[in-house]
Amino acid sequence: MSSPPLPAEPVRGERTAEIVARLLSQAILDGDLAPGTRLREETLASVYGVSRTPIREALILLGSSGLIGLAPNRGATVLRLTVDDIAEIYHLRGLLESEAVSLATQRATPELIGLLDGSCDRLAELHGAAAGEQLRADMHFHYGIAEASGSPRLYALIRQVSAIPEGYRSSIPYSGQDLTEAERQHRAIAGALRNGRCQEAAALMRSHVGWAGRLAVRSLGDRLGAGLARPDQPGRSERPDQQVQPGRPERSDRPDQRRAREMT
After folding, report:
1. Helix, strand, coil: what percent of the chain each, to 5?
2. What percent of the chain has pLDDT over 90?
């Protein structure tokens, strides 16, 4: 390929490994990398135009999130994902992010409040925009709060557990109604934080992440049930040694999907 397929505008604070993890997560959730597909570091490094170090870090991140399995002498393999997995991930996000916003409320600065207000204003402008643009504005809000918690470990955990949600949101934009509701909920969280109401901010954040999780389950349910992940239904391939064949489009000619099929 002529140029690395890394986005020009990463999500707030993303390292190269996190960008690669997001793109791989998107490919898996889109069904372009089926369960059982093996992911080779050297091939991924060539596809993304980066060294093997961020590739290795990305695979570890996705292994921790449950999207891939890592085994000695076998490398990384795409795992089967279920609707219950998606629900659990958002449940964990709710626990972590409610704690983060509680801590951030106690440490709130004018800079943080300005960042959150600006993020909400930006979200309001993105009706009909591409999924990636909506994702950047959304995660700017969430990661801004996580950073402001003052806990690097909590921030790292939130980014880790957000790998799958970011992948899903990279390809599925909010509807106009859902975007309006997301903005409303963000402004309510920002208002509680601004006024120093820790418990209210935490409750609003947990409710908001729960709402987002229900949207994810609804959006991904048919896709997962069609064979990407549900345990009682075979996926497009269950063979652990299945290899994605380059240059053989299956569902779409989108460039990011063609890149995904070149990875192994």
Report:
1. 65, 5, 35
2. 43
- Looking at per-residue pLDDT, the higher value among 224 and 90 belongs to 90
Give the CATH number of domain 83-221: 1.20.120.530
Opening angle at CA 223, ends 167 and 220, nearest 5: 50
CA 144/CA 192 separation, integer angstroms:
15
Residues contacting 192, CB < 8 A, separation 6+: 105, 200, 201, 204
- Rounded CA-CA distance 191/200 in Å is 10
| Pair 63, 204: CB distance under 8 Å | no
**Hey, do 16-80+235-261 and 83-221 end up sharing a CATH topology, with the first three levels equal?**
no
List the structure tokens of 112. 């943080």
Domain ranges of the chain: 16-80+235-261, 83-221
Residues 248, 139: Cα–Cα separation, whole Å: 34
| Beta-sheet strand order (sheet of 75-78) | 38-39, 75-78, 68-71
Which position has the token pair 């690395």?
Answer: 4
Mean pLDDT, to the nearest integer, of 154-161? 91
- 5 or 209, which is more confident? 209
* Residues 44-90: tens digit of each pLDDT: 888 888 899 999 998 988 887 778 888 887 789 988 878 888 899 99
Query: In CATH terms, is domain 16-80+235-261 a member of 1.10.10.10?
Result: yes
